[in-house]
Amino acid sequence: MNVVTYYRVSTASQGRSGLGLDAQRDAVGKFCQSRGCDVLAEFTEVESGKRNDRPELAKAMHHAKVTGSTLVIAKLDRLSRNAAFLLQLQESGAKFVAADMPEACNLTVGILALVAQQEREAISARTKAALAAAKARGQRLGNPNGAAALHRAGRGNVAAVGALKEAADSHAANLRPVVEDLKARGLSSLPAMAKALNEMQMKTPRGGRWHPSSVRNLLARLGA
After folding, report:
1. 210 Cβ partners below 8 Å, 6+ apart?
2. In the prediction, which pLDDT does 116 show?
3. What predicted TM-score, i.e. pTM, was given to this entire model?
């Protein structure tokens, strides 16, 4: 099987140093070896997954299309976490496969993308509704110390506390792929992970910078 490989890192520093690429190349390499693939071309992008205007991905897709090859990536989120973008990619007729789920067909990938996005939107809607209900009852929101402080103080209604916890859980879930990528790069200590998250401009649930203690809390929420 002829393939075109595509790798993406989120920051320029990762692109220059190769951090993050090694794990992707290893996953794709193992997949290609197991399937007897012939790699015709390789493309690497330094860009955020939130953006869809990625020239290297466009080149990779075009190269795969004109050669009748399959685009191979390490993980589905290396393409995008945006369902609309993934569905547009499918409609373009481009063949692609993720090394972490090689048996998934285009329909499966589309369903997974839609479910993931719907869940994010549902969590956001539930959080906003709970906060609005708490505010309507006169509950003062925005405690800088979060839900834990409300529990310790013995005040704060269930909806407000639940909304804060749900928002934190949702934020942690969105960062799970980032944490997995850091671990794959060998960054396992709390200080090293905090430094990497800050360099990638990832925000804490309160929009601040990461510290070892906040990374510990993140890992606890993820059960990692």
Report:
1. 193, 194, 195, 197, 198, 202, 204
2. 57
3. 0.46
Number of domains in the chain: 2
d(Cα 74, Cα 22) in Å, to the nearest integer?
A: 11
* In the predicted structure, residue 39 carries a pLDDT above the cut 90: yes
Token pair, residue 30, equals: 């193992």
Q: Do residues 125 and 208 share a domain? A: yes
Q: How far apart are CA 121 and CA 100, in angstroms?
A: 25
Counting Cβ atoms within 10 Å, is residue 69 exposed (0-12), middle (13-18) or buried (19+)? buried
Let me know whether 202 and 115 are in one domain: yes
Q: Which domain holds residue 66?
A: 2-104
CB 109 within 8 A of CB 90: yes
pLDDT in tens, 85-97: 666 666 667 788 8
Tokens 């071309």 belong to residue: 41
Residues 70 and 126 in one domain: no
Pairwise CA distance, residues 140 & 117, whole Å: 30
